[in-house]
């Protein structure tokens, strides 16, 4: 029943993580990537959709930029959070 429902931010967060970690060894660590995604997604408001393409087509340019900026900030904060945790060990 809920298999067609997804959080719109999930794909954006994963794309941002891949872009942020491109060229690093950490991208190959699935546990690290999953931790980043969880931390970032937990800071963003959920946006549940059935069809991401339909939702995206209704976004204005300003709202699209706002969402992208929020996702980038959430991923950046997630990277910093994990770095602080590792530094404290």
Provide structural commentary.
The chain has one domain. The protein is built from four helices and two strands. It has 89 residues and is mainly alpha-helical. The N and C termini lie far apart (43 Å). It has helices at residues 8-21, 30-43, 52-57, 61-87, and strands at 6-7, 48-49. It has a two-stranded antiparallel sheet with strand order 1-2. The model has no long low-confidence stretch (mean pLDDT 90). The protein is elongated and about 45 Å long.
Describe the structure using short key phrases.
89 residues, mainly alpha, two-stranded antiparallel ribbon, 4 helices
Residue share in β-strands: under 5%
Question: How many separate domains?
Answer: 1
Number of strands: 2
Shape: elongated
Topology order in helix (H) and strand (E) letters? EHHEHH
Biggest sheet descriptor: 2 strands, antiparallel
- Regions with little confidence, pLDDT below 50 for 5+ residues: none
Whole-number mean pLDDT:
90
Detail the topology: elements first, then pairings.
Blueprint: E1 6-7, H1 8-21, H2 30-43, E2 48-49, H3 52-57, H4 61-87
Antiparallel strand pairs: 1-2
Quick rundown:
By secondary structure, the protein is mostly helical. The chain has helices spanning 8-21, 30-43, 52-57, 61-87; strands at residues 6-7, 48-49.
């Amino acid at each position: 029943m809920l298999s067609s429902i997804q959080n719109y931010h999930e794909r954006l967060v994963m794309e941002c993580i891949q872009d942020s970690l491109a060229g690093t060894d950490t991208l190959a660590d699935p546990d690290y990537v999953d931790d980043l995604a969880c931390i970032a997604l937990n800071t963003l408001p959920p946006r549940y959709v059935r069809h991401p393409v339909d939702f995206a087509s209704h976004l204005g340019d300003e709202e699209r930029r706002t969402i992208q900026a929020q996702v980038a900030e959430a991923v950046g904060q997630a990277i910093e959070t994990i770095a602080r945790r590792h530094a404290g060990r």
